[in-house]
């Protein structure tokens, strides 16, 4: 959830993973791993990311911050 919210906000603001990583002082691969849920995020790094996105700490913690994609987006066509 948190990684997806970070990705959504990053894309909404027009940043690449590299842009966000540079602004936050983190490595690009770390940003990607957090967004995909492959890496746990520390509170310190979370603070760096929300600061780089000009958000408050609680802004990305809500489950309903960004709605899930519509069900038809997950349907595979044969």
UniProtKB/TrEMBL annotation:
SMART domains cross-referenced by the UniProt entry: HTH_XRE
GO cellular component: cytosol
SUPFAM superfamilies assigned to the protein according to its UniProt record, in alphabetical order: lambda repressor-like DNA-binding domains
Keywords: DNA-binding, Transcription, Transcription regulation
Domain HTH cro/C1-type per the UniProt entry, residue ranges: 6-60
Gene Ontology MF terms: DNA binding; DNA-binding transcription factor activity
PANTHER family found in the cross-reference section: HTH-TYPE TRANSCRIPTIONAL REGULATOR, HTH-TYPE TRANSCRIPTIONAL REGULATOR SUTR
Annotated protein name in UniProt: Putative transcriptional regulator, XRE family
């Amino acid at each position: 959830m948190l990684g997806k919210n970070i990705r959504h906000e990053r894309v909404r603001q027009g940043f690449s993973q590299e842009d966000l990583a540079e602004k936050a002082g983190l490595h690009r691969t770390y940003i990607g791993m957090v967004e995909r849920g492959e890496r746990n995020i520390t509170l310190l790094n979370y603070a760096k990311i929300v600061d780089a996105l000009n958000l408050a700490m609680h802004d990305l913690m809500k489950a309903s911050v960004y709605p899930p994609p519509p069900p038809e987006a997950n349907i595979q066509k044969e």
